[in-house]
Hints:
Blueprint: E1 2-3, E2 6-7, H1 11-14, E3 21-27, E4 32-37, E5 42-46, E6 51-56, E7 61-67, E8 70-75, E9 78-83, E10 86-92, H2 93-106, E11 128-134, E12 137-142, E13 145-149, E14 155-159, E15 167-168, E16 174-177, E17 183-187, E18 200-204, E19 215-221, E20 224-229, E21 234-238, E22 241-244, E23 256-262, E24 267-272, E25 277-281, E26 287-292
Antiparallel strand pairs: 1-2, 3-4, 4-5, 5-6, 7-8, 8-9, 9-10, 11-12, 12-13, 13-14, 15-16, 16-17, 17-18, 19-20, 20-21, 21-22, 23-24, 24-25, 25-26
Amino acid sequence: QIKDDAFIDRSDDFGITSANIKCLYFDKKFNFLYVGSQDKGLYKVDLNENIQYFKNNELEIIDIENDGSDLALLNKDSFILFKNDKIIKKVPSQNFRKFAKLFFIKKTFSPNIINLTSQLKNDDEVVFYNLVKYKSSYSISTYIGLFELDFEGNFLNFYPIRTNKFNFDLQGNLINPIPYSSLDIVINLEKYNGNLSTYNNIRYSLTSPHTPSSVNSFARFKDQLFISTEFRGLFIYNKDTIFSLNEVNKFNELELKHLAINEESNTLAIASNSGEVFLADVKEEFNIFKKINKE
Length: 295
């Protein structure tokens, strides 16, 4: 918690016994905080009463999303849907592998196939990376490709694109940061079938200082998408333009960790790798108005 421009450790107050916190989701309607850990599962904290009254021991939580009051989470072995604090569906990693295999069985490929990274023989090859809710479905990035599922946990699509952190722009194009390399905006993703001839993309070269690399977080505010990186600072993707805030001398912190947006206050919170948090007003022009130090 941040109070009087200082950090306060509330782990003991809320009964959070894990030190390996991976992700958070705040349900502002009911004032619940969901805490995903890598070693002790999922916690649910009632911020009104400052108590934890629900804990699920599904271990190694990777990511959390939501559909209204329903919760979706990704752990090491499966995609899980919750309703009223109960698991209503679990999609194990072997189901992802089977769905991908069906895709390859149905397709006929030329030698130009790209992004094929697995022989799809073992369930442990389905390494989960990231979970994103966009419009009416969930998208999940894995070592073997990108999957799309509906809000009931049914498979909709598979794309043989290996991506880690990703998101979608206002037009629904896939934002695909290639680790330690360029960034692709994939146009008409639904038409991509694994062949180069159907891979329609706009590529931003790593040689440009305005190209995000080693992306670790996204935050959407109206028609802007903020992108944080491990070593290149903060970027803004505005419609069809990406630019570095470091290059335009608006924000020079380069080693970033996480982003969070508060739409009610028009505030973007930017966590740095050194433990500092910067607060920016993003209603009109980007403007840092507060810095909170680690100690």
